[in-house]
Amino acid sequence: MNFGAVLGHALFAPLFIYLEAIVLTSLLVKGGPPLSVVMQHIKSKDNRWYFWTGGCLGALYQFVSTMVTPRIGLSLFFICLVLGQLFSSVVMDHWGLFHFPVSRIQYSKALGIVLLLASAVMAQNFSGTAVSTDSPGT
């Protein structure tokens, strides 16, 4: 049984995870700089739009992992997770996105992505277990 099932619906799991994070972060920030200093940093020219995407992307990750993992299994989920992170990092490095230094893609990096993709295909097709069609949270 998973956390979503215990709470009655899969979407309650990430909701409570983020509520816990808000409470803990609020306690930790209590000793930090005053809000006026934080607001000055928010208004600075060094502030980039993509700095603010972390919360949305984190919530999207929690939602997708909660809904998909019970259907495809943990091993395939983590293979796909690492594959997506590896592919994204190679793309960001290749074009120097988000002010990262440019590091052109090499055959070894491309081969690593292809091998990880092959492992995802093998985990899906040759694992001997069927993909679940049960609704998560039930």
Brief account:
66% of the residues lie in helices and 0% in strands. The chain is mostly helical. It has one domain (3-125).
Rg, please?
Answer: 20 Å
Q: In this structure, how is the largest beta sheet organized? A: none
Low-confidence segments, given as residue ranges, are none
Helix/sheet category: mainly alpha
The CA-CA distance between the termini, in Å, is 9 Å
The domain count comes to: 1
What are the SSEs and their pairings?
Blueprint: H1 3-7, H2 12-29, H3 35-42, H4 54-72, H5 74-95, H6 107-125
Helix pairs in contact: 4-5, 5-6
Mind explaining what this structure looks like?
The chain has 138 residues and is mainly α. It has one domain (3-125). It has helices spanning 3-7, 12-29, 35-42, 54-72, 74-95, 107-125. The protein is flat, with a radius of gyration of 20 Å. The N and C termini lie close together (9 Å). The model has no long low-confidence stretch (mean pLDDT 83).
Attribute tags:
138 residues; mainly alpha; 6 helices; flat
